[in-house]
From TrEMBL:
<keyword id="KW-0949">S-adenosyl-L-methionine</keyword>
<dbReference type="GO" id="GO:0008171">
    <property type="term" value="F:O-methyltransferase activity"/>
</dbReference>
<protein>
    <submittedName>
        <fullName>Putative O-methyltransferase YrrM</fullName>
    </submittedName>
</protein>
<dbReference type="GO" id="GO:0008757">
    <property type="term" value="F:S-adenosylmethionine-dependent methyltransferase activity"/>
</dbReference>
<keyword id="KW-0489">Methyltransferase</keyword>
<dbReference type="InterPro" id="IPR029063">
    <property type="entry name" value="SAM-dependent_MTases_sf"/>
</dbReference>
<dbReference type="InterPro" id="IPR002935">
    <property type="entry name" value="SAM_O-MeTrfase"/>
</dbReference>
<dbReference type="GO" id="GO:0032259">
    <property type="term" value="P:methylation"/>
</dbReference>
<dbReference type="Pfam" id="PF01596">
    <property type="entry name" value="Methyltransf_3"/>
</dbReference>
<dbReference type="InterPro" id="IPR050362">
    <property type="entry name" value="Cation-dep_OMT"/>
</dbReference>
<keyword id="KW-0808">Transferase</keyword>
């Protein structure tokens, strides 16, 4: 595991645009979790690396991760972002607009992930980013693998879950669900999978 100096250095290394900083401040004010800066910059890099034109996000929040994805995506790419809380999406819409993202580049769907994801098209997406309810990670991963095109990238946030996933003695429900999702992905021979210790952990798998 990285030491504290290294963690601070990695976190400070990620440069955020003003709109992302403001979205993060909104998240703090509303007590809504937001993606850590280093994890956000990882999303931007991944989106740029695959030239992402179509991305699905579960857990819009105030738009921190959405801004990071949009910053790396193809200039005509479309982000589809799902959140059960309409108010969170209103904050994200403001953040995207402030960042100068035209409305045609994002589709905000207010609803429960497990009701919305099954309605999206098979193999149509370059990236699926999951950052919603931890207890639904298993089902969301299954849906994500259906949605991704071959070569598409799955990213699971909070994969280390405050150190609890690595702690064998921790048997909280969220921890168990995340841990099982990680091992299920690791075991699949059709995926290339890695676990990155940025933010609270990103599981990245290429289909
Ligand atoms: C960790 S926050 C997302 C933060 C966001 N990705 C960001 O970086 O700004 C989790 C979000 O998931 C949403 N959420 C919780 N349960 C959900 C569900 N069952 N379906 C869809 N969204 C859900 C919450 O309303 C919250 O906005």
């Amino acid at each position: 595991m990285t030491n504290q100096n290294t963690e601070q250095f990695i976190s400070g290394f990620a440069v955020e645009p003003d709109a992302a900083r403001q979205a993060r401040e909104r998240a703090e004010q509303g007590d809504i979790p937001a993606l850590a800066p280093a994890a956000a910059s990882t999303l931007t890099v991944l989106a740029r690396a695959v030239g992402a034109k179509a991305v699905v996000e579960v857990g819009t929040g105030t738009g921190v991760s959405g801004l990071a994805l949009l910053a790396g995506m193809d200039p005509e790419g479309v982000l589809t972002s799902v959140d059960i809380e309409h108010e969170h999406q209103a904050l994200a819409r403001t953040a995207f607009t402030k960042f100068g993202v035209p409305g045609r580049r994002f589709r905000l769907i207010a609803g429960a992930a497990l009701e919305v994801l099954p309605k999206l098209t098979d193999e149509a997406y370059d990236i699926v980013f999951i950052d919603g309810d931890k207890l639904e990670y298993g089902e969301c991963v299954e849906e994500a693998l259906r949605l991704l095109r071959p070569g598409g990238v799955l990213v699971l946030n909070d994969a280390l879950w405050q150190g609890k996933v690595a702690d064998d003695t921790n048997e909280e429900d969220e921890t168990i669900v995340i841990r099982e999702a990680l091992y299920a992905l690791q075991e699949r021979e059709d995926l290339a999978t890695t676990l990155l210790p940025v933010g609270d952990g990103l599981l990245v798998a290429v289909r």
